[in-house]
Amino acid sequence: MVETLIFQGLIGLSLAMYIWLVAAGLTLVFGVLGVLNFAHGSLYMLGAYLTETCTALLGGNFWLGLLLATIIVAVLGVGLECFFFRPMYRLPLAYQLLMTFAFVLIFDDLVKMVWGPVYRVPPTPKGLEGSLSILGRAFPVYNVFIIGLGPLVALLLWLILEKTSWGKMIRASASSREMASAIGINIKMLFTTVFAFGAWLAALGGGLSIPIRAVSPGMGTFIIIEAFVVVVIGGLGSLKGAFIGAVLIGLLEAYGTLFLPVFEMFFIFFLMAVVLIVQPGGLFGTQVSHEEA
Amino acid sequence: MKRREGSILNIILILLLLVGLALLPQVASRFSIYLTIQILLLSLLAMGFNLLFGYTGLLSFGHAAFYAIGAYAAGLILKEATPSLLLAVLVGTAVAALFSLVIGFFCVRHTKIYFSMLTLAFGMMVYSLIWKWRDVTGGDDGLIGIPRGTLSIPGLLQVNLHSMESYYYFVLIVCLLSTLFLHRLVHSSFGLILQGIRENAERVAFTGISVQHYRLLAFIISGAFAGLAGTLLPPLENTLAPAVAHWTKSAEPVLVSLLGGAQTFAGPIIGSILFLVIKESIVRHTEYWLIWFGAILLVLVLGFRGGIVGFLYENVLTRLRR
Amino acid sequence: MKRMNRRDFLKRSLGTLAGVALGTGLDLPEAFAQRRPVKQGPIKIGGQAILSGPLGGYGNFMKMGAQLAVEEINTKGGIAGSQTEIEFRDEELKPDVAVKNARYFVDNWGADFLIGCDASSVGLAVGQVMPELNKVLIITHAATEKINEDLVYKKGIKQVFRISVPVYQDGIAAAIIAKDFPVKRWAAISPDYEYGYTTWKMFRETLKKFRPDVEFIAEAWAKFGTVDFGPHIGAVMPKEPEGIFTTEWGGEAITLIKQAKLFGVFDKAKAWMNPMGAAMDVLEGLGAEYPLGLWISCRYWFLYPDTRENRAFVQRFQKRWNRYPHYVSETGYSAVYAIKTAVEKAGTLETSEVIKALEGLSLDTPAGKRVFRREDHQAIYEVPWGQTAEDKKYPFRILRPLKVIPANDYYRQPPFA
User: Residue C146 and residue B140: Cβ atoms within 8 Å?
Assistant: First the structure.
């Protein structure tokens, strides 16, 4: 039983790291730009499709394919931010949501037009095939890799935010846009780069998912709601919160499935509601009093 | 002087619309009547939603829950208990209002995105429950074979609603009465206080008014009208499935209110017409309807930021008056 | 009546002849095509299927099949002398959208027939309004037993027919296959909705009858749109099942297999059964990654039956669409031919007459002989189960050996208790 519990915990962790990769970009973009990007899932999907295509173009090298694909999506992010998101910042939240929703629809059909409606057979990266034995059970090597990569990405983000001047600008702008502007930060440039970085993270999550998940149009809708929940639970705009939130949800899903065969999304939304009621700003969000919230 | 001209124009437009709606079954095909009923239902849902969004400043992302609760309550009554349409509509609306009270109690203490996220969470909880409570709701196969019922008040009235035309008139009357009620409501002192809360909650609180009580009341009325719209659905479709509670359904009133103009009373109605007519026209011509619909949405969002109704008022009507 | 020119006449007669020769169910006098057409203007078929989102492929494949049938029929003179037109709409897997589509087709577009429906809820919802619309609906995919047992048999909605297999194939036939396995401990990893529950229940009940010694030790239900089956695999495997039954389909079947492989499930469990595993999208989506020796089936598999008709159909389909037919392609194709045969037999488009013509109709289709059972309008035909095997001729797994159970041995019979 103990082995099962530990093993299930590992499964939950790998699940969590997948969610984290998607949630990281989502919460970063919200923290700085104040936009809840529904189309983040579409960027994830584009990352997956492009990784498959680029890998094939580059002679089967998954890592080069992934790198190229994520860069393409980041460049696309620059375009999206400049032409579509920029005019929306002053408008209420609902307009932004609606616009990102429109992009979800557009990208889903675009992908179908370009790649067709069939499931793709993506490559498995060399060296990460098969499984190793943990507690006498087979555990995918690829999941071990993901469990390791998640915290690495978190560390990278922390280093960027704490140690680089770009990071300092991001933090300054996240806490007060007016202040940041006043001390001479080029807000436009900052927003574009942050959005592109968020898009890059989404594409990374999508690209890394293809060895173990089916690639299909609309695949972004399957993961975006979970990422939303994680970001809200962790606190909108908080990277630390998104990480902890992802671990919470990952473990909840793993253990929930173990103990309740009919485990449902209900519990995840229940957890989200409880957190919001008790702590409106989320676990690690900026503290908001009830009247403000 | 100009205001009066505007209101005369309004009255003429409304009268024309009413005559058109009343005569519709004489000229339109059964499908057009059906589509009009769907527009009416979405308008009612969106008007209820917009009491909270446009007038109180609270963006709910879970209104499909109340719509679905009304629909399932009415559907169950019609299917399992009695084929009395009036009873189904009344009880369904009441049940939706009750749920609005409970859910609203938790939600109205929040505003902005936190309110939206909390309503989303509650909405999806309702969706999960409908999906999972298979003995009652039929799970994802849904409730099948719901009769349309008869409109009967013992000793007074007995109307057979079997045909699409007669059901259309029933829905139309319910929607007109609701519209009238909501119109009076938003122009009453209650409505003004709600708008005051939207603009500046602190100032309203300063006058000794309990902001939260008003928000909760608005939430309940809003949820009740969403529920009322829901009760009219199962007699139309004869079936009911969990998709009516999904967040994508919750997105519809948001979308149509913004399209039409959330700050105007007629916005949600115009938005509903646009939404369903545009979608219907697209799917007739292409299988790739998502991309077209998304592109049109994008243009509308970027181009008409105050909604179509607001745009018309500002640009067309002012020019007409000159 | 408009005079037919010689070319048309020739085309039609030749077409009819060709139809007879190909055995597409046409056993009518050759002169039929010259008679007055049953309708002025084209006969219209309204099709709907899921065309958008992750499962959008299903709608596309179904469309390909139906369209091929319409093109073939039209080049051979149409249905009873009338040209045929088909149009498709996206059902979005939403019952209300599907009902709207059906109403549009019949009331606005002027459809004479409806075909399609992927989701069970969609089939049930559209079936429910067919008496009001009073046209014949031929369901090509939705598999719930409630369609034939409840709607048609118990409620007497005569306008609804189904040309594809019901869940009996997925649950009952699977159990009849599984009874010969040296497996005592079964577990399920299946979709968390009616389809998943019903098939697992049918599987358990049937298997228990044949094999009182089997146990059903674990189940894990995965929500619609699951991308990580790790938790489900982790929950089921510690109970040490010897056989795993799943009815995951489409992309989720692909995801489940990929992940189960990495978790070593196929090294531990002796048997794996998936009644949707032989669907073309799953076979192609997994390619050589599909483990060998798994028991899979679907609703038509392109290499069965090994008849001239089927081989010719696969060839024509490949020529037209440059791919192998999916099972929904075949059901869509055959649905159109069922309409043709019934209309020509009835000699009219009158719904009640067409229903009479379809009831008990025996039809030669690529999937073999189909008979529409009178009582519940369910097509009876055989679909094989088989084990995944390698074949150099194909870039994906094929089924070998095959195991075919006569449909009448496992289809539930009316009156459905």
Answer: no
> Domain with C232 in it: what CATH number?
3.40.50.2300
What secondary structure, in 3-state letters, does C264-327 show? CHHHHCCEEEECCCCCHHHHHHHHHHCCCCCEECCCCCCCCCCCHHHHHHHHHHHHHHCCCCCH
In a domain, B16, yes or no: no
Any domain includes A16:
yes
Interface test with B, best of A269, A278, A283, A290 (most B CBs within 10 A): A269
Residue C229, classified by CB atoms within 10 Å of its CB into exposed (0-12), middle (13-18) or buried (19+), is buried
- Tell me, what's the ipTM? 0.90
Closest alpha carbon within chain B to C157 = B145
Q: Which domain holds residue C98?
A: 6-165+304-380
User: What is the spatial distance between Cα B82 and Cα B149, in angstroms, rounded to a whole number?
Assistant: 8
Query: Least CB-CB distance to B121: which of A91, A103, A272?
Result: A272
Structural domain range at position A241: 2-278
Residues C250 and C389 in one domain: yes
Q: Establish if C416 belongs to a structural domain.
A: no
Structure tokens at C45: 């078929």
Contact in structure between C387 and C294 (CB atoms under 8 Å): yes
Q: Given CB atoms, is C173 within the 8 Å cutoff of chain A? A: no
Name residue C391's amino acid.
D
**Within a domain: C417:** no
Beta bridge partners of C364: C369
The answer on C172 and C155 residing in a single domain is no
Looking at the 3D structure of chain A, how many domains does it have? 1
Examine residue B216 and state whether it is found in any structural domain, yes or no.
yes
| Element (DSSP H or E) covering residue B2 | helix B2-27
Q: What is the full per-residue pLDDT of chain C (417 aa) written as tens digits? A: 444 454 454 444 444 444 444 444 444 444 454 456 788 889 999 999 999 888 989 999 999 999 999 999 999 999 998 999 999 999 999 998 999 999 999 999 999 999 999 999 999 999 999 999 999 999 999 999 999 999 999 999 999 999 999 999 999 999 999 999 999 999 999 999 999 999 999 999 999 999 999 999 999 999 888 999 999 999 999 999 999 999 999 999 999 999 999 999 999 999 999 999 999 999 999 999 999 999 999 999 999 999 999 999 999 999 999 999 999 999 999 999 999 999 999 999 999 999 999 999 999 999 999 999 999 999 999 999 999 999 999 999 999 999 999 999 999 998 887
Residues C19 and C158 in one domain: yes
Question: Contact B140/C120, CB-based, under 8 Å?
Answer: yes
Cα–Cα–Cα angle for C370, C374, C377, rounded to 5 degrees: 65
Residues of C with Cβ-Cβ distance to A222 under 8 angstroms: 54, 225-227
Q: Which domain holds residue B27?
A: 22-244
Is the minimum CB–CB distance between C124 and chain B shorter than 8 Å? yes
**Interface with chain C: mutation pick from B37, B239, B244, B293, highest number of C CBs within 10 Å:** B239
- List of chain C residues whose C-beta atoms are within 8 Å of the C-beta of residue A12: 231
User: Total domain count for chain C?
Assistant: 2
Cβ contact, residue pair C94, B145, below 8 Å: no
Residue in A119, A213, A263 closest to C227 by CB: A213
- With respect to residue A290, please indicate whether it lies within any of the assigned structural domains: no
Return the amino acid letter for C202.
M
Give the global pTM: 0.90
- Do the domain assignments include residue A273? yes
| Residues C122, C250 share a domain | no
Tokens matching residue B260: 């039409």
For residue C226, list chain A residues with Cβ-Cβ distance below 8 A: 222
Total structural domains within chain B: 1
Evaluate whether residue C328 is within a structural domain: yes
Probe site for chain C from A22, A110, A216 (most C CB atoms < 10 A) = A216
In the complex, which subunits touch B with 3 or more CB pairs below 8 angstroms? Answer: A, C
Burial category of B314 from C-beta neighbours within 10 Å (exposed 0-12, middle 13-18, buried 19 and up): exposed
C85 and C150: one domain? Answer: yes
The reply to whether C334 falls in a domain is yes
Task: Verify that C81 and C161 share a domain, yes or no.
Answer: yes
B65 falls within a domain: yes
